[in-house]
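Trying the structure run again after the queue cleared.
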Amino acid sequence: MKKFLLSVLTGASLFAGNFINLQITNDTIKIEGEAKISYNQPFYVRGGYLINSDNPNFVYGGIKSEGQIVGVDLPIKFSLFLDYVYKKHNSALPIGIGASGYLQQFAVPVFIRGEFEYAPKVLSFDEAEKFVKYKMETGVRFIENGEVFVGYRNIRFNKNYDNSTYVGIGFSF
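Done. Tokens:
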């Protein structure tokens, strides 16, 4: 399985549409990434790793598809995703939605994006009764393939795991 995932990520990295970012708070460091694996309908593999000084580390991986709503002419991309999330003694298969767009009235590209994921009891495993994760980010694209941003995230299984505001930097390649 490790060889298969490594092959998929290596093959996907040969094409444009990949993304990686780093998010930092006083108590956490999180690295996230996406690799585009299909161009007809944008389809990605994605993952992240959160190092938390107060709690066990949090890991997720999954798939994502994005596009625009048919018949609606808005500069907003919508996404659907399915992830596998894990921290010590808790795991889940949440289903999520996301939206992202650029604000056109500024001299530099300003973006806003958000995600929401939820897994009820039937999709939560180990000691988890449910899983909820949401985040909001806004920032500027300071170069063609680079951005800086500020965001807020809330991750919880049965109780709050991480509730923090963070700063970050990201790159597309």
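The longest helix spans residues 2-12. Worth checking whether this holds up in the mutant runs.
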